[in-house]
Amino acid sequence: MIVTVTLNPAIDQTVQVEKLSVGSVNRALGIIEIAGGKGINVARVLADLGHEVRATGFMGVKSHPFFHAYFKQHRIQDRFVSVYGKVRTNIKLVDRSDSTVTDINLPGFSVVDSQLTSVFDPIQQLPESTWVAVCGSLPEGISLDAFERFLARIKSAGMKLAIDTSGPALTQALAVKPDLIKPNIHELEALAGKALSPREAVSYARGLIKRGIGTVVLSSGAGGAWFLSGQQTLLAVPGRVDVVSTVGAGDSMVAACLSSLDQHFSLDSMARLATACSMKAVSKTGVGLDGDSLWEVLSDRVTIYTL
């Protein structure tokens, strides 16, 4: 069992255009609307990888039936806590000419700090050493201090904690020494407070390991990703793939890392699987592995370097 926590879920609307023209009328080539939010995306890929997955977090009561149907379709246990209001809508404009994505994130429901207790309930029932991945942004009304206390409760219950968030929430989360974090290069630079060269970024990530973070995965798009543990530093470089959309690539990488850690894979195997799943994600529209084993083929096209 692996648990994902999405405190601020969304309905993801992906709209494709041939070439985005700012200030003009753009004709949509197609639209896909799915249940979204980073933790939900991670849960979807984990289920596709064969894991038993429990998803929890806050869910706008008016949107819950839509999400529940999605969870049932993809074999994800729904343990979300219903709150008043609707979830937010994230509009992703995909420019087919260069595969860039423009995000427009609308506001959603609001909650209060005390409601985090109800999200912890489906987690504390599980055995120690269960992986719990807390992913995405914080909803309106949740303070950083309450977020840190929530994460500390997860750690105190003996769970393995993975974090995939950014900005002040990521800074706050580091205080509880998570077992896995996956910042991208821009999120790491925000932590450092300055621009970083690749060498400086790896050095900073190693510093996080020394501060007690179990594993750091640092992604840099087409340039690959660094995988750091207390014993190794690896660079995984993806083979060439025709990019359709980058939506969900990072979430696919997080899911593959969790799958690997849950099965006690080596860092090398984790880097290969995570990069292959990310390659699979960018080769298509939407989230998930779609029930095929293309990612297994792609893993042979990943080059691993030891640093």
Structure description:
There is one protein chain. The protein has helices spanning 38-48, 64-73, 116-124, 144-156, 167-173, 185-192, 198-210, 249-262, 267-282, 294-299, and strands spanning 2-6, 10-17, 28-36, 53-60, 76-78, 81-83, 88-95, 100-105, 131-135, 160-164, 180-181, 215-219, 225-228, 233-237, 303-306. With 307 residues, the chain is α/β, with parallel strands linked by helices. The protein folds into 2 domains: 1-135, Ribokinase (UDP-N-acetylmuramoyl-L-alanine:D-glutamate ligase, 3-Layer(aba) Sandwich), CATH 3.40.1190.20; 179-306, Ribokinase (UDP-N-acetylmuramoyl-L-alanine:D-glutamate ligase). The strands form 2 sheets. Strands 1, 4, 5, 6, 9, 10, 11, 12, 13, 14 and 15 form an 11-stranded mixed β-sheet that branches. A 4-stranded mixed β-sheet has the order 3-2-7-8. Helix 2 (64-73) links the parallel strand 4 and strand 5. The protein is globular. The two termini are 33 Å apart.
